[in-house]
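Help wanted!
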Amino acid sequence: MSDRREFRDLATPDAAREAIDSLDLAPEPETVPLTDARGRVLAERIDAAIDVPGFDRASMDGYAVRARDTFGADEVDPAELDLVGAVHAGSTPDVTVEPGTCAEISTGAVMPDGADAVVMVERTDEMRSGDSNEAGGGDGDRPDRIAVRTAVAPGDHVMSAGADIAAGARALGPGTRLTPREIGLLSALGIDEVPVEGKPRVGIVSTGDELVRPGDDLDPSRGEIYDVNSTTIAAGVEEAGGEPIFYPHAGDDYDEMERLLRRAADECDLVLSSGSTSASAVDVIYRVIEARGDLLLHGVAVKPGKPMLIGRLDRSESDADDGGSDDESRSGESAYVGLPGYPVSALTIFRTFVAPAIREAARQPEPATATIEGRMGVAERYGEGRLRLMPVGLLDLNPDSGSPPLVYPVDKGSGATTSLVEADGVVTVAPDTEVLDAGETVSVQLFSPDVRPPSLLGVGEDDPALNRLLDRLDAPRYLPIGSREGLRRLRDGVPDVAVVAGTTDREVDSVELGGWSREWGIVVPEGNPADVDGLASLVDCDLRFVNRSTDSGLRRSLDDALDDLATRRSVSRSELTDRIDGYAHTVRAFESPVRRVIAGDADAGLGLRETAERLGCAFVALGDQPVTIHAAPDRTDRDAVRALASVLENFGADGSGEDDPIDTLAGYSRNDETGS
Amino acid sequence: MSDRREFRDLATPDAAREAIDSLDLAPEPETVPLTDARGRVLAERIDAAIDVPGFDRASMDGYAVRARDTFGADEVDPAELDLVGAVHAGSTPDVTVEPGTCAEISTGAVMPDGADAVVMVERTDEMRSGDSNEAGGGDGDRPDRIAVRTAVAPGDHVMSAGADIAAGARALGPGTRLTPREIGLLSALGIDEVPVEGKPRVGIVSTGDELVRPGDDLDPSRGEIYDVNSTTIAAGVEEAGGEPIFYPHAGDDYDEMERLLRRAADECDLVLSSGSTSASAVDVIYRVIEARGDLLLHGVAVKPGKPMLIGRLDRSESDADDGGSDDESRSGESAYVGLPGYPVSALTIFRTFVAPAIREAARQPEPATATIEGRMGVAERYGEGRLRLMPVGLLDLNPDSGSPPLVYPVDKGSGATTSLVEADGVVTVAPDTEVLDAGETVSVQLFSPDVRPPSLLGVGEDDPALNRLLDRLDAPRYLPIGSREGLRRLRDGVPDVAVVAGTTDREVDSVELGGWSREWGIVVPEGNPADVDGLASLVDCDLRFVNRSTDSGLRRSLDDALDDLATRRSVSRSELTDRIDGYAHTVRAFESPVRRVIAGDADAGLGLRETAERLGCAFVALGDQPVTIHAAPDRTDRDAVRALASVLENFGADGSGEDDPIDTLAGYSRNDETGS
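Answered by r_m:
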């Protein structure tokens, strides 16, 4: 521990921004095919090199005429012109319109020589030889004269060459972001590749011996975890307009880290290291940057994110000589930022400090929807005297009203990856703010421009039927915090609904929307080797048990059953629980005890018949417990709550077989069928 | 013209929406690597298959202890524990923490057997043998005892296995759009590929013999134009979440069109035809759909877009048998929509009717920014009794105030591709609306969610120095409509500035921001073969001339010079102009007359010295004319107008050589140097 680096003299967030601004991470412009150019930014002005259209063009179907020949013509006294030919789009006119003549012409065709206007076909009649007054008949002969029933002026229904855009005119300016519309104009100019600002190449180096790439095998007994930051930050880099490049994991070895960082520096405009929570890995990086680059800043006074590094990394000098670099204008340094190790911290620091720099280097504008106003749903105290980037969740109570969404803090500890999806953005809390009041308006920086607040916020018990019910709703968010904590939060006014299993002491004003019943009991290995036959076996046999926490409705039902047993035996409940090995060993979710049993870490676990049967265990039933959905009284009129009630009404009620969630889950029944 | 198909019995827009809703264009779900999953939509619920973390994990650097051993410890009376080993992140613990002992532990490491809590390193001191009271010194020996200066409870600074997310818990629901945050959670679960909704495959068939693909050679004499719709619509398809597939151009031949449409139907979920303005090409498509599919609707009562087709196309029956299809669940039909030929019409109809269907098939949500409120800058009359999708431009007068942008109609005729970039979106005007008043609030559907209104709207003369000046501004829009029309629009209150060349009769209240001077005259072929030596040559020699329109400041200066010449000769101006062959032949932009001269279509043209010299022509000077930028008096305080004034102040004033736009353009000078 003697190498531990202390973060004294933390830099201010403004100093961190300045340090990042001082880095050069702008790539060279590049040329891309027009079909790949959507969302890119023009690197230079595009002037039209051709006239569009490139010729005087008929803009109506009709007849090309000399306008002077039609002067004075009207419905009563049409002008009669000899029809001398036809011009179609995509062909060269082979006629000349002399005085007194006309030529049939299609929209988009080249105006023939001599003609200076088009008469719409609707204002003409076809005539045949010897037929001076009547529309053409059906004998199949081509008409040879045309009666024009209107006068036209020169230029009528003709788009002259260059009238849309003329050669030499400024078509699009530098810095223009290319949407389908600009791509359309470039197509009209015949341009099939365009000079655009380059995408900054961002190398992502994840550090820490404990990290395993998603998809590879994980050995939890060695403390391995999947690498979250690399893919998360890579997606953030893409979103900001950069091109992420993954590098292999680096361990804590100095030489390996140096080799890796220099390779990344050679190939990238910016190198991000991220992933390790290990002080020794951070320390190795620190030493490499100091030796092989320039450390501008170490540690920022912001929560989360203190352990942030900003600097530059030297590129290999030999690289330009041996032709290994494909970009000779590259400077001798790459920008470097070290992100915190915890995923929510890393993403927060990335989007606050790094994404703006990537966008600026790519010349991409700040997304329009990146910041929204919201209203605090609960009060939040804070008093650390350090700028805080507080992760928050959103709930859009009135999606169509334009009123601000409800904002609530999400604080599960920054090590939790689930905070990533339970938070929608960040509220910046100034160092001198001690409390944010409920109802106060706050500005939320969304994690991504495409974040959409959930339609419904539910909290409470975890349950497999509930999981299926949620699938039928549009964009719900559900926090499985247990029945007891769920009711507490419902009372505090943030969620729409709480899901409660079994009985509860808590009195919370709510509206019951409905529910179902589930069979609970003791899960034991296949074949029930210890011959468990009820609650008494847990107390009286030497079994390793796995319990659920007191927030869970399952635990409450177990404790109620233990109370009954204690009463029957005339002892206190704690006398019984003291004899259950593992009564205090609690795990988090409805499947967790079963998995401990399967893994051989326990002989029995608290669980559901559904889970036991699905995972191939034996099950000793102890009872049925109701699962009930409670809505906050002031939320029952919300569309999302009505939608939930409507799904609930039909849920498990059709008995129609394989799609029916109640009928297909072992031990489940509709509420009205249950005992208790 | 006898095959012309009339659009009688136009369907209502609602009927068109219903017809499109009745089409099935949803693709099969697919599995993609997590690194490519950003922006995709989950096709099914993802439950956690593992506990995260997968082990009881230290969440601080410090010492793993049995909590009971620390009970009662404080700063005054620390608990002393034997140090029995160390556990680092990424390795399997090789120690057991027995009562009275502890093990050094790093953040993220596996809790060793026996330990149930972690003491932060900050609350401990290292001790060495025989040293019962003092922090460890520098002799390099490992400490063998640790003094713990605080009591901890079981579970303190430990994240238990599954505490973040437990195996079996619902991680993400179907329909979830994957942003960096969801990608982070999926990474934590070790998932490296995900089931997502497919992208609808959208075949794009462009029709019309006159269309040439951008990048290929164009023959304007044959009436060829570049194909705008294919790339524009393809970009729109991508933006809506579909995958565009280009097919070769089809001409007007029935068999070729049938072959092409059936191939596209076999390979795609939706076929869009687009591109032709030719009635005969539309007619061929109509016949193919009727013969080889099902035409649901032909013609919609909407402006633009009457000639819209909606239907289905049969797939080849043999395809599934010969193994040519890689998707056996494909139904026997593909959806089909025929778009109008003009680019703005095609894009408008696409985004109004087709993009929502593609988004729904891809399960992509409607973009949050796709519709904004604006305020009409001018009144607009309309009275055709047909739903109108009116293309409009936007100007964000107060970008940071949140007040609605100014909205103005863009109506250059739907054949103009420049409308694509001059319009930002569409206002839907109900059939019974006769007038939209200035100041009225309207809802603008943006062409793309990433449309951003320009910061500055300028109108007026076209000028090469102005083009360079605009490059120095952030997101300006400039409409080169000529000096005269520019002043008229400035008076009407929409643009910020008008650029005026030469003198003008129009009295418009404005603030002059500055400008420059440019030399104008007669452009003739290299070497001046006709020995043009002034204005008199145009009148007295037999030269084919090319003029600019009366809106142009260049034309105004020419006419003033002709007036002078007429006065000197004691004739009227029209007596002179009647003798100039081509005086009435006007072209659009400052380069256009010069290009006619170069092409041999004219012997002399009205133009600038700058253009003549740059394009290698000879030049006969007739004078200098000022180019002045006029700001609307109520806009001079806008940031964008100030930025323009500031750029203008330094423009051409530094005389610093190659980057200086005034010094490098032939015939240009700063205003204070010019004569006239």
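OP: Thanks! One thing I noticed: The two ends of chain B are 56 Å apart (CA to CA).
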